[in-house]
Every structure is written in structure tokens, then in C-alpha cells.
């Protein structure tokens, strides 16, 4: 591997909005892993029996709806299955959770760098 050192120009912009942030959420990772293990669409009964100690299937369906909202599962004709994003979340061990706020995005202006966005950070709330 060759490492070259040189100066690159970094710019920023601030925005208020919703950004998905990786968080350790074992309860949602468990649902994602269940969907991966089953290899077929999940139902509320599956989630209830396997993860919720036999609570009602309505609660299992609510868990599935929340996982769909988070992008972990996607609805199919016969239930809900693991999404591509859900597979990535399992690999990373983190769930991408929407978080509202003011954010600063950093990007590089350089023809040699393929991924121009290099960092994002949440700005402190100045109204507190």
C-alpha cells in the first residue's frame, strides 16, 4: 500500500433535518437476526413466540411495523422480510435510527477522493 500525504480542501455546510444515526439497539437487532435466521417472511406470531415470550400476536405485529419504519424489514405479500438495509445493520451491529436536529456535514473537494462526504456531526442546541 502506498500512502501519499497532501493537503485537501474540506468544506462544510449546516442543515436542520433528520439524519439516521447508528445506535446499539439489541431489541431491534434481535428482530433483524430472527428474520435472517428464518429465511422467510415473519409474522406477528413469529416475533411474539420467538422474542416476546408468547405475548399477543398484535404486539408482534407492532414490533414488525416499527422495524419496517426503521428500514430493518420490508413488507412482502406473505409478511415482512429482512431488507438489504437490515442486512447491513446486522453486519454493523447497529440500527440506523432517525434523529432530528442541526447537523454539520463535511466534504472534500478533491478529484482523487471517490467519497466526498467524510464526516457528519450533530451541532449543540443553542436555544437551551
| Count of beta strands | 5
Helix content: 25-40%
SSE run: EHHHEEHEE
Number of helices: 4
Query: What structural class do the secondary elements suggest?
Result: alpha+beta
Shape: elongated
Beta-strand content estimate? 25-35%
Mean pLDDT: 89
For the biggest β-sheet, the strand order reads 1-4-5
Largest sheet: 3 strands, antiparallel
Uncertain runs are: none
How large, in whole angstroms, is the Cα Rg? 20 Å
> How far apart are the first and last residues' alpha carbons, in Å?
48 Å
Overview of the molecule:
The protein has helices at 26-38, 44-51, 57-69, 84-92; strands at 9-23, 73-76, 79-82, 95-109, 117-122. The longest helix has 13 residues, at 26-38. A hairpin with a 2-residue loop joins strand 2 (73-76) and strand 3. The chain is elongated, with a radius of gyration of 20 Å. 34% of the residues lie in helices and 34% in strands. It has 128 residues and is an alpha+beta fold. The mean pLDDT is 89. The strands form 2 sheets. A 3-stranded antiparallel β-sheet has the order 1-4-5, covered by helices on one side. A two-stranded antiparallel ribbon has the order 2-3. The protein starts with 8 loop residues before the first strand and ends in a 6-residue tail after the last strand. Helix 1 packs across helix 4 and helix 2 (44-51) packs across helix 3 (57-69).
Amino acid at each position: 500500500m502506498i500512502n501519499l500525504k497532501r493537503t485537501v480542501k474540506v468544506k462544510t455546510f449546516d442543515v436542520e433535518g433528520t439524519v439516521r444515526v447508528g445506535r446499539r439497539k439489541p431489541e431491534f437487532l434481535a428482530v433483524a437476526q430472527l428474520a435472517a435466521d428464518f429465511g422467510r417472511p415473519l409474522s406477528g406470531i413469529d416475533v411474539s413466540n420467538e422474542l416476546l415470550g408468547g405475548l399477543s400476536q398484535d404486539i408482534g405485529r407492532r414490533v414488525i411495523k416499527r422495524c419496517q419504519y426503521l428500514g430493518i424489514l420490508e413488507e412482502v405479500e406473505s409478511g415482512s422480510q429482512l431488507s438489504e438495509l437490515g442486512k447491513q445493520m446486522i453486519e454493523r451491529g447497529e440500527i440506523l435510527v432517525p434523529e432530528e436536529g442541526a447537523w454539520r456535514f463535511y466534504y472534500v473537494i478533491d478529484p482523487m477522493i471517490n467519497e466526498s462526504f467524510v464526516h457528519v456531526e450533530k451541532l449543540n442546541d443553542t436555544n437551551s
